[in-house]
Amino acid sequence: MLLGDKDISKILIGCCGAYCKTCPALINKSCRGCKLGYDTGNRDISKAKCQMKVCCIKKKYETCADCSDYSTCEIIQEFYNKSGYKYKKYKQAIDFIRENGYPKFIKIADNWKNAFGKYE
Q: How far apart are CA 10 and CA 110, in angstroms?
């Protein structure tokens, strides 16, 4: 499925590594996802509160996995150091993408039931 010239699955990977395509909140429309609407002008990036999203979208990255400053970025590393299981799983997703690429990640993530899952 395509949205403009981008693969919809890539657009639905949050900048942080959450996989929004399988997230119940996006499916039931209680969440708009991390990146949807900014490419069409339906949402204004200058009004976004998430520093990670602002940085990622302004630099035209798919996710933080594309950033050469990933390992030293205070914004993303502070996010991943929050307490909570999901932050570790989002970091695992970005690390997986950096090592294996988007296609392999999407193939695995499409089987998840939530914004994160297992790598089997």
A: 11
The mean pLDDT of the chain is 88
Angular region, 97: left φ>0, alpha ψ -120 to 50, beta rest = alpha
Cβ atoms 114, 80 nearer than 8 A: no
Regarding pTM above 0.90, the answer is no
Q: For residue 13, give the 3-state DSSP assignment.
A: strand
Closest by CA position to 93, among listed 69, 118, 58, 60: 118
Compute, in degrees rounded to 10, the torsion defined by CA atoms 52, 41, 12, 104: -90
